[in-house]
Amino acid sequence: MITPDSIIRIGQLVKPHGIKGEITATLDYDIDLDQLTCIVIEIDGIYVPFFIAGVRPKSTENVILKLDDIDHETAAKELCGKDYFAMRNDVEIESSLDENGGYLSDFIGFTLCDASGKVLGEISDYDDSTDNILFKLTLPDGKTQLIPVADELIEHIDPEQRNIQMSLPEGLFDL
Length: 175
Prior knowledge:
Layout: E1 7-17, E2 22-26, E3 39-43, E4 46-50, E5 52-57, E6 62-67, H1 73-79, E7 83-87, E8 111-113, E9 119-127, E10 134-138, E11 144-148, E12 154-158, E13 163-166
Parallel strand pairs: 8-13
Antiparallel strand pairs: 1-2, 1-7, 2-6, 3-4, 3-7, 5-6, 8-9, 9-10, 10-11, 12-13
């Protein structure tokens, strides 16, 4: 069974390309999709593997994917708008939290607490597209909040308890 801990988001399926089941997809990392065992797509709460029949570049950020058993536009359209993932053991993403080799993707699923130990939410994703790296935090009420990832804000990381304690600026959650 594929679990959230065993995969990493690598892009989004955007729209059908033509009538033979090809799909235009974003690619968030510089990885060779041909080298992956499969891609994984969440369908009805279940992570389903799809094998890549072909991939070709469309632009600097987009590729055209052909997946096994997706052979017409209607089937491709059903997958569009969904994120797609790679198995963690198939890829090594270059985004690191610090020079000690901790990958940002390793912190997805960690609980984030404030300096007093109060649970603020769960880290559901990250954004490293700018110099200011951010954690995407899912709050207990289901809303999301972006949290800056900076060494001076991190008080303690407990990998065994999957917990990060941070000293966050006052008023951050009021933005």
